[in-house]
Amino acid sequence: MRTTTKIATVALGSAALLPFLGAGIAQAADGNTMATLRPVALNGVKGSGTAMVTVHGTRIDVTMSANGLLPDAPHAAHIHFGADARHECPIAGDDKDGSKTLNTTEGGPAYGPIVVSLTKTGDTSPKSGLAVDRFDTAKGGKISYERGSIEVSPAVADAIAKGQSVVVVHGVDHNNDGKYDGAKKSDLDPSLPTEATDPAICGSLLAAPSGGAATGAGGASSPTNTGLLALGGGLLLVAAGSGTWSARRARARS
Ligand SMILES: [Cu+2]
């Protein structure tokens, strides 16, 4: 009897502490960010997309849509951040080995390492960076992704809220044969062809005004940010119809 009572008291004590611990952790950051995803330099992709990330303390909610990707192939997607990175997408000048393509490592100085793996289920840490079976397969070249309450570290939450992180969707088709193949191996996993992991589309997650939610003092959104959001929405609409068409045109040309 006495033992049971003691255990119950200890359990109750721990539970009562939890809200306080939670409140301490949740102070990290808050904010809305948005990225317009565009083709990574040199990699021959014509896709595009939009990503939105909302930060609440150390949890993030992510929505992303993209099209024009290699159809019916899995596409690893991540949020990248490095304190000493440039906080942007790689440019042709990042092609250090002169291969005329950019692999994931070559993009590192621009976007830093993986900080969140945008998997559909299970772990979202950098360890799941190449968990191919848990990423979206782009049916018809399109991805529509949504996942809420992804736990991140306070440092990562802060970087995202400040607009320093970058969304990267991987998986390209350098030789335009409709699949991941080729002799060149991935810089991330030598059992995969580089096509499976090279960055395809990319965009910096820029701080945006919070939507309808009350934000307290200083809620007036700047014209610049509103314009950016409108532009992103417009691009999304245009992109929705253009993926297949671009692919057809590309095939017709070659
Ligand atoms: Cu990545």
What does this structure look like?
This protein has 254 residues and is α+β, with helices and mostly antiparallel strands. The protein has five helices and nine strands. Strand 2 and strand 3 form a beta hairpin. The chain starts with a helix and ends with a helix. It binds copper (II) ion (CU). The site of copper (II) ion has 5 residues, from strand 4 and strand 7. Copper (II) ion binds next to strand 4 and strand 7.
The rounded distance between the terminal residues' Cα atoms is 81 Å
What structural category characterises the helix and strand content?
alpha+beta
- Beta-strand content: 15-25%
For the biggest sheet, the summary is: 9 strands, antiparallel
**What is the ordering of alpha helices and beta strands?**
HEEEEHEEHEHEEH
Please give the number of β-strands: 9
Sequence stretches where pLDDT stays below 50 over 5 or more residues: 1-26, 212-254
Shape: globular
Radius of gyration: 21 Å
Bound small-molecule species: copper (II) ion
Distinct helical segment count: 5
The overall pLDDT average reads 81
List the helices and strands and how they pair.
Layout: H1 2-25, E1 30-39, E2 48-56, E3 59-67, E4 77-80, H2 108-111, E5 114-117, E6 143-151, H3 154-161, E7 166-170, H4 194-197, E8 199-204, E9 206-208, H5 223-253
The chain binds copper (II) ion.
Copper (II) ion binds next to strand 4 and strand 7.
